[in-house]
Amino acid sequence: xxHLSSKxxxxxxxxxxxxxxxxxxxxxxxxxxxxxxxxxxxxxxFPKLEKARIVVAVGGVRGGYQLARPAGEISVLDVVDAIEGxxxxxxxxxxxxxxxxxxxxxxxxxxxxxxxxxxxxxRAEQSMRAELARTSLQDxxxxxxxxxxxxxxxxxxxxxxxxxxxxxxVRLASLGAPAAKRIAxxxxxxxxxxxx
Length: 196
Known about the structure:
Blueprint: H1 6-16, H2 28-35, H3 39-51, E1 55-58, E2 64-67, H4 76-84, H5 108-111, H6 116-134, H7 137-147, H8 152-175, H9 177-183
Helix pairs in contact: 1-4, 2-3, 4-6, 8-9
Organism: Panacagrimonas perspica
Pfam family, one: Rrf2
GO molecular function: DNA-binding transcription factor activity
């Protein structure tokens, strides 16, 4: 069994699409569907990220999530701890004192200090946490950006914007015409053409 659950992977993948500021926030459902993962599962991750001040929820018709601070200030360790709750890599069961040849009373040398196996695991966890703390969401986003075609991020932004627009239309339609007029986004005036 993996130490870090798939929730961490899903959360990080979703957060990568929030790194670049967007006009409208992205819903957890849209982020999940974009990547072919369970919207219900992702919806359970985002409240943990919000509680850890990694994302903020934006309400309203075009609501969703945005990063709470710049991506360069959010470490992978922040995300892991928010989702997993800071659980240890290894939990020593202290079996070293249960050796059959000791009988009911293990000698003091067998249980003195930290278990040698536990000590290795502690060092491994410290190294892992240091690497996760050193790596930010921005670092990962840069790597993904270098690996993907130039227009991929643009396509994803377009897909997310289309989904936000569709959500708005559905919500406004469900409210009826009078209510929809009160909360519909205001049209941005177009510049008048001056060429003749």
